From TrEMBL:
Entries under PANTHER family matching the protein: PROTEIN UNC-80 HOMOLOG, UNC80
Residue span(s) of domain Protein UNC80 C-terminal: 2-75
Gene Ontology BP annotations: monoatomic cation homeostasis
Superkingdom of origin organism: Eukaryota
GO cellular component: axon; cation channel complex
Protein name per its UniProtKB record: Protein UNC80 C-terminal domain-containing protein
GO molecular-function terms, A-Z: monoatomic cation channel activity
Pfam families in alphabetical order: UNC80_C (PF20262)
Amino acid sequence: SIYLKTTELSKVLFARYLLENTPYNQIHNCVTFFHDELIKSPSFPRKPLESDYNLYTRISYKELFNLDMLHKYNW
């Protein structure tokens, strides 16, 4: 579960970085590309924002909870 969350977070951060550093005249092309790629993704749009709260019942899963919150914030 941590691996999946980390992978999803890295995709979101990468997309965000690219959009922030894309020249203004190319934003439309970049957004269109990301939209097409996100639509193809089986985990979009529901899975990135869903949480399995049963994972957070133990204190040892605090890292997973923090990773999940960081992921939601970046979405």
